[in-house]
Structure formats: C-alpha cells, structure tokens
Amino acid sequence: MRLAHRLALENDNIRADCIESTEFPDLAAKYRVYAVPRTVINESAAVEGAVPESFLLDAILKALPPAPPAAEAEA
Amino acid sequence: MGLIRDEDAIEIRKRLEVMVNPVKLIHFTQELNLEYGVEAKQLVQEVAALSDKLSAETYNFLLDKEKVAEYGVDKVPATVVRDGKDYGIRFYGIPAGYEFATLLDAIISVSRGESGLGEQSKEKLAKVTQPLHLEVFVTPT
Predict the structure, then answer these.
(1) What are B62-73's pLDDT values in tens digits?
(2) Fold of the domain built from segment(s) B6-125
(3) Partner A, chain B 36-95, Cβ-Cβ below 8 Å
(4) Prediction ipTM score
(5) CATH number of the domain encompassing residue A17
(6) Contact between chains at A18 and B102 (C-beta distance less than 8 A)
C-alpha cells in the first residue's frame, strides 16, 4: 500500500486509494478481492500481492491506454 | 478511552519528529449506518494530536457536498492526507492494524515531500502522463 501512495506523491496524474476490504464488501466483490493486497489499476487490471516496486510499475505501464506517439510507453 | 495507548502515543510522537511541512488529515464521515465511523474519526483525531505539524478536519459526507466534490470522495469513512497540495492519497475505512503504519508512512512522506522511490522507478513513472487510479484493497490484520 505504501508504494501506491508513494507513486501518487511522485506523479500528479496518479491517485491512490487504500481501501479496507471488509468495510467495503461490495467493492471488494466487484474487483474479486479474494486475497490482499490487491491493486486495481484504472478499474480494470489488477495485481495481487505485495509486489516489488518495479513489478507494480511495469504492470501500471502495461495497463495504461496507448499513449500519444510522442510519449509512447513501453509495451 | 483513547484508541491509541499511551505507550504507543510516545512512539508515534517520536516517529513524527521527522516531519518537515505541516500535514492535514481531511476526514469524511457520516453519523448513521457506518460500522467503524466513530472509531475512524476518533483515530484520525488522536493521531493528529501527536504532532504540532499535524491537524485534522472532519466533514460530513452527506452535508458538506462542496468538500466531498473537492476531494472526489465517493464512500466513507475516508481520510485524505495532504499538505499545501492534494496528492491524491486516500484511505477508505479505518486506518487501523497494518494500515496504521501505512498512514504514518503517508503522513511522513507527504510532510517531507519524499516519495522514497528509486531513480529507475521515477523514470518509469514519468511515462504516466494520463490520469491513473490505483485502488489497493487491504485488510486490517
């Protein structure tokens, strides 16, 4: 969780919510949270587990919509 | 009775000594139908009292519509950690158990303006040029 907040601190485009699953069971069910932590990216992709910084960043970049040609992200 | 034990309060005060800039905890709650609403509000207020550089504001989710819209809060209890700027850092639910340490970490990082990320990560992160929403689901234990 700390990592997500740190990413938000570093980049103004990012917002990071820490959600207590048991208090928001409907949301947890919607995102199929069976194990924690589970990081949902832009309401679609998800990463399970307390993964290393580089792993989460790669997952984030992969989940991003295609960038404009000038700022092409790595596939 | 406080939620934070006296001996823990002493430790937390020490940890918060590294704070640089003032940090605000903006808390949203509602009076009824909220399982841990009272405890969450109390916890936020107790933490805020542990440093001169920390303060807390509480708003009513149903009544303070302007603030709710300003912070884009869509469920409660919610807690925003910010300094002069809102970085998009939110806690939904009571930040207790493991998440209490995460809250302290967020407070200190914001206060010091240091994400603590490696240079490689910062480079990768610079590629995020569009709005990105991360929702990290956790449990208190």
Answers:
(1) 999 999 999 999
(2) Glutaredoxin (3.40.30)
(3) 36, 72, 75, 77, 81, 87-95
(4) 0.94
(5) 3.40.30.10
(6) yes
